[in-house]
Amino acid sequence: MKLLAIDTSGPVCGVAVMKDGAIVYEASAVNRMTHSVNLLPMIDAACQSAGLTVAELDRIAVVSGPGSFTGVRIGVSTVKGLAHANHTPCTAVDALEAMAAGAGEFCGVICPIQDARAGQVYGAAFRAGDIRPERLMPDTPLKLEEYVETIRAFGDRFLFLGDGMPVHRARLEKLLGDQAVFAAPQLAFLRPASVAALAAAAEETVDYLALEPLYLRAPNAALNKKLTEGLKDGK
Q: Phi and psi of 27, rounded to 5°?
């Protein structure tokens, strides 16, 4: 199988190519340029390095969320465009599951968290698995304290990673003490190679027309519109 994997769901823009079960190319951009600027040149470089064209791909994978609303839309829209010409099958990969898959063999609870602002995180919990980690809870937006109370039921040692980790590290240390473990820098972000591995292991694909972003809550624009409409109606 020849597979291209794309992630623009968080602060890192990443691409990977898997060919016949092996990762033959991986790149991540952490340079503060927008994903819309980085992504297409990175895809072109990935295909050239792997000796492939987009038309030769058997599958295209994309992180469909949760994450940045704009970032997720960039990735999903790009994959729709790439898949359109050749009707290439697509696979949507969960961001938090992909982070957990790249965390290594941690003996405890793997806790990927994204900063959702206002003291909240998008969080889940997993145990290490062979390729696909074992899910312990669904992706959920929660106040940090509520998230911590939820994961306590799964164990007594917790590995945190993701862009929410540095934002909430001090509070996590206060809430969990020595039970909190924090991923090393090279393991703390979503690896596109993990996206590729999860996508290759997925039994089902979707047509590009059915590919949709995964949002855990409505975008701010939608919330603001609802609030404005409510004020107009006197609610």
A: -150, 140
